[in-house]
UniProtKB/TrEMBL annotation:
Transmembrane segments: none annotated. The lineage of its organism: Bacteria, Pseudomonadati, Bacteroidota, Flavobacteriia, Flavobacteriales. GO terms for cellular component: cytoplasm. Belongs to the class-I pyridoxal-phosphate-dependent aminotransferase family. This is Methionine aminotransferase. Residues 25-373 form the Aminotransferase class I/classII large domain. It comes from Marixanthomonas spongiae. Keywords: Aminotransferase, Pyridoxal phosphate, Transferase.
Amino acid sequence: MISKLPNTTTSIFSIMSQLAADHHAINLAQGFPGFESDSVLIDLVNKAMKDGYNQYAPMPGDKKLREVISKKIESLYHKKYQADREITITAGATQAIFTAIAATIHKDDEVLLFTPAYDCYKPSVELFGGKTVEIQLEAPDYQPNWEKVSEKITPKTKMIIINTPHNPSGMLFAEADMLQLQKIAEENDLLVLSDEVYEHIVFDDAEHQSAAKFPQLAKRTFITASFGKTFHNTGWKMGYCAAPEYLMKEFQKVHQFNVFSVNHPVQKALATYLQNEANYTSLPSFYQEKRDFFLEAIKDSRFKFTPSKGTYFQLLDFSEISDERDIDFADRLTREHKIATIPTSVFNKDNQDFKQLRVCFAKTEEELKKAAAILNGI
Ligand code: PMP
Ligand code: GLN
């Protein structure tokens, strides 16, 4: 057999974005900002190109950028990652996740995963002969049940993947969750992959609980992050991984041969831009305003929702509107009502359908208004 991923299909993000384009629909499906990245940052990229940073960056990434990331993590989460040995700049969080998995998952290893789960974890594990063991989070609060997690652990369990703030539910892990995770990971000698791409997008004065804040957890954890989410430029595909030296050593063995190094001028620009804390500390209020504006605009619609606590996604329950499968309903909304959303069954254990669509509210007020007018009429 040629295929190593016989059960994997085209990502729902490609499918829905193409469908939105084909039908001239508002695209609230794939998660990307509908507005420009800061012109200051764009100017810094231009400057870096003019200054001659157009050849390969160092394999782990620009030194200054790694130093600034190290300082940022230390000031936010009080954990020092050595810039020269414990941080690697990657082509988005996707490459960081793939590389962490490629570097550590062997044939027949089991990897625990909370579903609904972002779509890149499972195929990455399977590609290296691992098996995901899925634990379904339940609406409306999607909080993890740690007893269930313990029950799923076997001698083959190698890693647990978490994602907070959580895509697609907008749920956050509390400090108590991280302490439970730390305990379970230590007791069972598990690696942890903590996908924190939305670390700066948390609402209602909540605090992001980074794995970096928990010393015994950080010792066994790969943290992945995405500049695309933080600085509104998902198309630049820029992110990083932070992990203790013994894990980063293995990570870099793979990184150097699947990409070697990533976009040099963008790294130079980020090294300067990231030094201004306001460029990320402003995000919670920026996105909370968008969430509140959007939810106020659709409060009288027939969709039901619990406000998102983080990320730029909102789940909408359509069980009072239709009993179609979510995939069919989302397809019909795109074709007939000109609004594209993500059917969440594709993220669930066994593709269970809970009649939930995911929408992205990282859009201009004008676009959100238009989207709300459509949703109110469904
Ligand atoms: N993890 C999660 C939870 C995401 O939502 C995304 C992007 N949608 C990624 C990882 C990938 O990030 P990037 O675009 O930086 O590769
Ligand atoms: N992370 C984005 C989302 O959840 C999409 C990323 C992608 O298209 N692969 O919508």
